[in-house]
Structure to design on (123 residues):
């Protein structure tokens, strides 16, 4: 039975941690992956993707000039929901759909979700 994974790359720290995983999964016959860039920090993400030879299958290109966090969060939920509905992955960032989630730790964080700096509560 083949497993499907949707791997989301929004920011450079995620891509640094996930490119070896992506390259390893690509070599597995029983696994299908779809790479999806949200491009939250395109100017940092794209050079790393070129360096690691990771080419996302989808690019949501979600950032806009002077975008508010609420707008970004709304676009993320809507766009990723549409993507996952089409692909039916076994792992994705959609907890509210009760789909299992796996994510890399982005870095040191506090234990208080309301003070998660430096990376933010929605990373």
């Amino acid at each position: 039975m083949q497993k499907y994974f949707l791997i989301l790359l929004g920011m450079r720290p995620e891509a640094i941690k996930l490119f070896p995983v992506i390259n390893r999964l690509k070599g597995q016959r029983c696994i299908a992956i779809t790479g999806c860039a949200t491009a939250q920090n395109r100017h940092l993400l794209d050079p790393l993707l070129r360096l690691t030879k990771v080419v996302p299958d989808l690019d949501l290109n979600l950032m806009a000039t002077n975008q508010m966090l609420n707008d970004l969060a709304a676009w993320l939920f809507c766009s990723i929901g549409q993507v996952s509905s089409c692909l039916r992955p076994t792992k994705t960032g959609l907890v509210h759909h009760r789909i299992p989630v796996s994510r890399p730790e982005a870095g040191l964080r506090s234990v208080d979700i309301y003070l998660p700096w430096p990376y933010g509560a929605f990373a």
Summary: Residues 3-97 form a domain with the Rossmann fold fold (CATH 3.40.50.2000). The CA atoms of residues 5 and 33 lie 5 Å apart. Residues 69-87 form the longest helix (19 residues). The chain has one domain: 3-97.
